[in-house]
Amino acid sequence: MTAHPAPGPRALLQDPRQEEVIAFLGDPHSHGGAAVERIDTHAAVVFLAGDRALKLKRAVRYPYLDYSTVEKRRAACEAELAINRRTAPTLYRGVVAVRRGAGGRLTLDERAEAGAAGEPVDWLVSMARFPDDALLDRMAERHALTPALMLRLAERIAAFHAQAAPRPDGGGVEAMRAVVDGNLADLRAAPDLFPPDAVARLAERTATALHRVGPLLEERRRGGFVRHGHGDLHLRNIVLLDGEPTLFDAIEFDEALAVADLLYDLAFLLMDLDHRGLRPLGNLVLNRYLEETGDYGGLAALPLFLSARAAVRAKVIAAALRLAATAGGQPAATAMTGEARCYLDEALAALAQAPARLVAVGGLSGTGKTRLAEGLAPGLGPAPGAVVLRSDVLRKRLCGVGDTDRLPPEGYAPAMTGRVYAELGRRAAAVLAAGQAVVIDAVSARPAERAAFESVAAAAGVRFDGLWLDAPLATRVDRVANRRNDASDATADVVQRQECYDLGTVDWTRLDSGRVAADVLDDARASLA
C-alpha cells in the first residue's frame, strides 16, 4: 500500500471516533487470533493478518480526497475494488463491513450485505496477502529487478492501456495545468522544506514546457491517448504474483487523477526507476512500451510528465513527513526531508536535460549491435535515455508477426528491407523532433543506408555518430548460433553469406566487438563523449 499522489498541505479533518475501529482491527482476536501487522499511510491504515490484508480508509479530508463520512468511505472501498480488479482480480477479494452488534461490540461482516444486522461503523477493502518482498520496490532495494521482468512489466502496462477506453473528456492541457499548479501550490506551502528559489525555477520551467507542449496534449486528448489508467504507477504499487508483475492500488478517490495521458501514467514508473538509480531499467521499460504501442508521438511531453511526477512525490513525502514528525520519529523524518528535496531537484532536472542526438550502431549479424545499443541508450539525451529503434523488431512488426516468429524469405526481400530502413528513418526523425535521443540498431551494410541515417540527423539539426562493429567470423557464427528468444532471424548460414557483402567505404567509427562487451561499451562511450 502506498500514499497517493497529490496530498495537500494537511488533512482538514480527522475523526477521532475511528480510533475505536483501528483498535478493533489491530486486535488479534478480531482475526481469529492471528498476529496483526499494521501499515500507516496518510490516507489509509492496512492490517495484515493471516492470509489477507484489510485496508481502512482514514476518516480524513484533503483538498483532493474526502473520506470524511462512513458513506464516502464505503463508496471509496467499492470503487477501489472495481478499479483494481481490472489489473489484479485475484488480489482484490471484496468489501468488508465493520458493524456494531448487540451489546455495542464491533464485528466484521465479511459479506457486507445491505440490510445486515448492526450499524455499519466503517468499511474495508479485503485483499489477498502477499509477501512484502514481492513488491517491486522491495525487489529494487535488493537489486532483484531484472531486464526480463521489466520488459514483461512494460508489455503488461501497454496491454492495460490498450484495453482502457478513450476518455476525451479528461486530460489535455487544462488537466495538466491543474496538476502542476497544485504541485507548485503545495511546494510553496512548505518553504522550510522546499527552497523558494528552487520552487520559483520549477514554476518558470514548467510554464515554458506547458506552453510548448500544450497543443500536443490537446491533440493527444482528441486522438484517444487520454484513458482511465492507473494514476499511481510506481514500484510500490506493483507486485510479483505467480511470476507476473501485477499492478494494484490504483487511484479510486478522484477519477480526474487517473484519467490522463497514457505517457503521464507510465511516467510515474519511469521517474521512480530513475530516482532509484535504475535508469537502464527505465530505458528498457520505455523502449518496450513504445515497441508495443507505437506511441512515439507523445515523447515531446515526457520531460514535463517526469517533472510533474517527481513534484508529486516531493509533496507526498512532505505530507508523510508531518505524520512522522508528529509521531516523534526524528531519524525517519530526517531521511524523508532529504528525499523530498531530492525529488524537487529531479523535477527541475527533468526540464533542463541533455539535447537530442542520433547514434547509429551498424555491423554484420553477430557483432553485438543490440547489446551495445541497449548499453548506450540510458546515457544519451533526456531521461530515461535514448529511444532504441531496432531493425529486427521493426521488421517483425511491419510483417504483423511476433518478435520471435521466424519470417519467410520474402520478409527479407529488397523491397521489404527498403521499407524497414525508410521507417527507421521516419521514426528517428519523429523522435528527434520531440527532443529525445535515438539509437538505431541495424546492419546498415549499404552505403546508402548509412548516408540516409546521417541525413536524418542533419535535417533535425542534431549531432550524428555512426559506430561500426567488427568481429571475427567464428565469433559471429558462435553468437548467432547461441541466440534464444531473439528478434533476429540470422543463422550461421546468413553470417557466412554476409562475408561476401560489398560494404563500400565505412567512415563510421570502427570498434572491435570481438572483445568483452563491457570493454566495447566503454570504448563506444568514449568515442561519443
Summarize the structure in words:
It is a single chain. The chain has 529 residues and is α+β, with helices and mostly antiparallel strands. It has 3 domains: 13-129, no CATH class; 136-350, Aminoglycoside 3'-phosphotransferase, Chain: A, domain 2; 357-528, Rossmann fold, CATH 3.40.50.300. The protein has 18 helices and 18 strands. The chain has helices at 18-25, 70-84, 136-141, 147-163, 172-188, 196-222, 255-258, 262-275, 279-293, 302-326, 330-350, 369-376, 391-398, 414-433, 447-460, 473-481, 492-498, 517-528; strands spanning 13-14, 36-40, 44-49, 52-57, 60-62, 65-66, 92-100, 106-109, 119-128, 226-228, 238-241, 244-247, 259-261, 357-363, 387-390, 438-441, 463-470, 509-512. A 6-stranded antiparallel β-sheet has the order 2-3-4-9-7-8, sandwiched between helices. α5 (172-188) runs parallel beside α10 and α13 crosses α14 (414-433). It is elongated. The two termini are 42 Å apart.
